[in-house]
Amino acid sequence: MHTLFHPQSILVIGVSDSPGNMGRNIVSNLIRYRYRGRVYMMGRKPCNVAGQEVHTSFDTLPHGIDLAVLLTPAQAVPEFMRQCAAHGIGRLVIESGGFTELAEERTELEDQVRRIAAEAGLRFVGPNGLGIITRADGVVLPFMEMPVLPPKGRVSLLAQSGGVGIVYLHALAGENIGLDKFVSMGNKLNLDEVDYLELIGQERSSDVACCYLEDVRRGRQLYEVLRGFPGKVVIQKANVSRAGAAAARSHTASLSTDDRLVEAMVRQSGALRVEDMTSMVHYAMGLTLPPVRGNRLLIVARSGGHAVIAADYAERYGFELPALAGDVADIASSASRAHVIRAANPLDLGDVFDFDRYVAMLDAAVRGDSYDAIALIHVYNSRTEGPDSEGLYRAAARLVREVGKPVFLCFLTDNAELDRLKALEGFPLFRSPEILLQSLAASRRHFLTRERMAVDLFPPRPPMDVAAVAEHLRLGRDEADDAGWLPAERVFQLLLSAGLPVAPFVVARSEEEAVRAASRIGYPVAMKVLSPSLLHKAQGGGVALNVKGDGAAAEEFQSLRQRLSELASGARFDGVLVQGMVRELREVFLGGRQDPSFGPVVTVGLGGSLVEVLNDVTVRLCPVSAGDVDEMLSEVVLFKAFRGDSRQRPADFPFLQECIHRVSNLLVDFPEIAEMDLNPLKLFDEGQAGQFVDGRIRLA
User: Fold this and answer.
1) What angle do the packed helices 77-86 and 107-120 form, to 10 degrees?
2) Alpha-carbon distance 15 to 542, whole Å?
3) Which of 582, 610, 612 is closest to 692 using CA atoms?
4) Other C-beta atoms within 10 Å of 615: how many?
């Protein structure tokens, strides 16, 4: 990977002297940005480009060139890969298009490319991308001319779309935010965001990495890389689809859709997520500043209206506005012309025109201990106050570098003036109070999340009869239906072995057995028909509740059996589950599954028959820490109703936390459990635990 981004020699394949040849643009970019290594060119016919020979054969090239850039027709790529490998070139950037992004039937061509790379030990970027940029080395490989790039710096950009990547490059250049590396990942046939982030993290050359993703194929590996990344990562995930949910057969599969897993990965790893390109750039700007380490914010504005707007957004994002520090208040009061400055936070400085006092106030606030961050909103006319405002801008940048406390600046003036200032220092300038506060809150969220992660522990594992669980899974393999779903009796036995309490139950296969079971458990009981054809029993009419007396039990057994035959002709009847009625309205859904990309994941939310209608659930990657579980319980909106009030005691949340950990451990320890759908868990009052009254498990 190091050679890929820091090559000492580059071969550009697909160069000619024809007008509009894009290979020439690559060579031109390398010259423009002063690449110091050796550049070789190859094309179909001999010619000279940029004063150098264009080779037509590998025979005239030296052996062991570090990197080859391929810009040829897609069908020619495999043969050029073979020739590169034979000539000792082990790193490639394949910019050619015409693979599955053009037509799905071109999977065979992509498979061929993968196979050649695997056999020859090649690593490559792409195909179907703009290549890479290592700004400090002058490695600029996009096939379009790049007359303007961001300056050298410590922000990297990974983009699955070349077009999106170019727009981001322009945006960073417009804000004068320095660039470390850029990768247009394309189809990601060989290398992907996991590989690139690993390299950037190892080199510690970037403070911020911005990622635009359209799919996540190695979610678990990406999660691990993000957790260990030494800087900050911001992710924009597009291509959010509900197609998987439509085809799912269980609540778990439909509720833990891919985008929820991306969100969980971001939260658990300490990364940040944005929904739009504008926010990505603003987050990157804010994250280049020192971190916001707490909630104490000082707002200074030259306009009362902007002070009010900023205060509104500060409250929205959970910031505190402490009283004005004494030294700051004294400077502000003495600078007022008409002595109408109110010593408050936010501080309105509309009556102050002495810019030396502005700098003095800023200096006192930054060096003092009263605030974790300062937001300065400055409105001015560039023609009359340009030089003074430049002095304020430079002073803010200097103070941040000296003290290490963040100052977020919003200068409201004409665009030409803003561009002039940003070119001087490269210090972030936000264009509105709203954007400033959003970015400030993102910085705080990243810092506090990373702090929590540093001390967040995995609690001691609750005791579990691992051998008994393994035996139930072994026996269940022969008992499962064609789709892999275990019979209800086996599910409940497994849950009990895992330490998850189940309401008393018996499986009855005759009317007499049903009556005896109900009598032994004690009335009233619930009765549920068992059949692989009826996964969601309540929705199919396969449940009878509050059954009282032997006669009613006998009648309901026959009724449920008849209802099954009406719902699904020829359906297999596996008996009726007779279970003690649990009279508790607080119902929880708890589930989990093995995701092909992210591995084991656990889901919790409001349970009952309306679980998918209300969709009030949250998901995390397993194993979950104590902090993860706390966050999950706070994210389920309707769990607020379980927290108790003057009329009822709170639900037993400690018990629910333990159940989440048990399910998480089950999924980690037994990957053959493809899905768990435990709904509902009846949650009792605090200190009284709860019971599961239904559940399904599918084996892989």
Assistant:
1) 0
2) 70
3) 582
4) 12
The structure tokens listed for 361 are 């106030």
Total Cβ atoms within 10 A of residue 63? 9
Helices (H), 37-156: 77-86, 107-120
User: Between the CA of residue 379 and those of 304, 376, 414, 417, 619, what are the distances in Å?
Assistant: 11, 10, 10, 12, 44
Cα 522 vs. chain centroid, distance in angstroms? 49
To 5 degrees, how large is the angle CA 160–CA 166–CA 169?
110
In angstroms, rounded to a whole number, what is the distance separating the alpha carbons of residues 447 and 315?
19
Tokens representing 71?
A: 């810009």
User: What are 537's two structure tokens?
Assistant: 């029993």
Burial profile 478-502: b = 16 or more Cβ within 10 angstroms, e = fewer = eebeeebbbbbbbbbbbbbbbbbeb
**337 band by pLDDT with thresholds 50, 70 and 90:** low
pLDDT tens-digit readout, 155-200: 999 999 999 999 999 999 999 999 999 999 999 999 999 999 999 9
CB neighbour list of residue 148: distance below 8 Å, 6 or more residues apart = 170, 173
Residue 215: count of CB within 10 angstroms of its CB: 15
Structure tokens at 533: 């054809």
φ, ψ of residue 144 to 5 degrees: the values are: -105, 150
Distance from C-alpha of 369 to C-alpha of 378, rounded to nearest angstrom: 23
Q: Cβ distance 661 to 461 under 8 Å? A: yes
Residue among 144, 171, 180 at smallest CA distance from 29: 144
What are the contacts of 604-609 at 24+ separation with CB within 8 A? 604/632, 604/633, 604/636, 604/656, 604/660, 605/255, 605/636, 606/636, 606/638, 606/639, 607/679, 607/680, 607/681, 608/679, 608/680, 609/538, 609/539
The domains found in the chain, sorted by start residue, are 1-128 (3.40.50.720), 148-273 (3.40.50.261), 289-455 (3.40.50.261), 466-580 (3.30.1490.20), 587-699 (3.30.470.20)
The pTM of this model reads: 0.90
Q: Are 49 and 17 in contact (CB under 8 A)?
A: yes
Q: Quick count: other Cβ atoms within 10 Å of Cβ 322?
A: 14
Structure tokens at 309: 């707007």
Residue 196 near residue 174 (C-beta atoms within 8 A)? no
Say if residue 245's pLDDT is above 60: no
Question: Sheet containing 347-348: which strands, arranged edge to edge?
Answer: 347-348, 297-301, 373-379, 407-412, 429-430
CB 219 within 8 A of CB 258: no
**Distance from CA of residue 483 to its chain's centroid?**
31
The helices-and-strands tally (H runs, E runs) of the chain is 24, 29
How far is the C-alpha of 213 from the C-alpha of 237, rounded, in Å?
5
